[in-house]
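Input.
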Amino acid sequence: MTADATDVTADEVEELSAEALRWLLANAREGEDGGLAWTTTPSDYELDASLYSGTAGVIPVLLEARRHFGDDRYGDAAVRAARSVAAAVDGWDGCSLYFGLTGMAFALRAVHDELGAPEAGAAAARAMDLVRSRFDGTRWGVLFELLGGNAGIGLGALAVGDADLAVLAVEPYLRTAERTPAGVHWEVRTDAAPRLHHLSHGTLGIVYALARVGSATGRTDLVELARAGAADVVARDEDGPDGFLVPHSDPQDRPELIERYSYGWCHGPAGDAQVFRLLRDVLDEPAAWQALADRCWHTVTHSGLPRRLRPRFWDNNGRCCGTAGVLALACDRLAEQGDPPDFARLLVADISSRATRDRDGARWSNIEHRATPSTLEPHPGWAMGTAGIVPELLRFTRLTRTRTRTRTRTPTSAYALPWPDHHPTTPAR
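Output.
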């Protein structure tokens, strides 16, 4: 069944979410001190504590479920998951938001703030102390972008209340920016010649961090550098004047593996629009930045997704690289722009139709066309799996119920746990 052949009600989406939560909890492992932990896939043996693919990334969906359903079972599970993440802190090498200690601290601090768990708060502070101690004056490692480098660490530090560390993390971009004809960009890893442009690993991820941290701390130099970085990417658009589409990288990074154009959160206009939403509320000319976000949406909705038109085009359901990440922007637009819900419903119907549902619950498999079999093992985590999909389904449920009953914009557009790199919804100016 495909999205073209089905539609789903809010109640059905909510039930699917509950089934997915049941599968998540059933696939938890026993961690230290009675904790809960997850591996990258259920068949793995090594526990993964990261925000990207492990236990820290499951915690936000548990908090979301507790808030949405009013069920303390999910809060209890989040506290137990925090115990496992806390136990991993001292032995964890990486410092980044999505792969390291900063993301772990973000999840731990959320459990402390939401559920009053002081041991989780103490572990979060310990994790951030380690992050600060490992800074070499410019960076924390090979990566120098949002998922694995300074930009994400700055955003995570800001999210846990450490503004000084947030500034420390993003200030190096002032001296490492490379001038281009239209603005600036950066070398986002020490061993790569290509310059990447988008949110997860490229210029726009750095722009997001500079704008967020700069506006929160009164650092206009950081905000103006964000403007220059955005200008470089805008100048690379190849789908104007109605749309917005920028290549993955220049020169193309690993063309034998990576498509020149993507459409999702990580390397495409669904993620680019998130940056323009932030710049709309931080910089001058809000109408111009909103127009860019609108152009991103035009390209996304005219691209053909979520249909899988050919191998490599659209084969992921998840939050980072797939349909759930596009649904996040669709829900932002429902809340901010009052968009018709048609495309959001199409995305939800597609996600629903691709779920595996049985007595164990619901989960999703992605596709790797170069592998045999091409259907991959379901992931529990945020980036590619169930933990990243469920919050978007629950948010869609709240928004569409509100739209049907009251026709007004309400706080139901918010997540239980605001994500460091997702701009909160605000009424359009």
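The longest strand covers residues 355-358.
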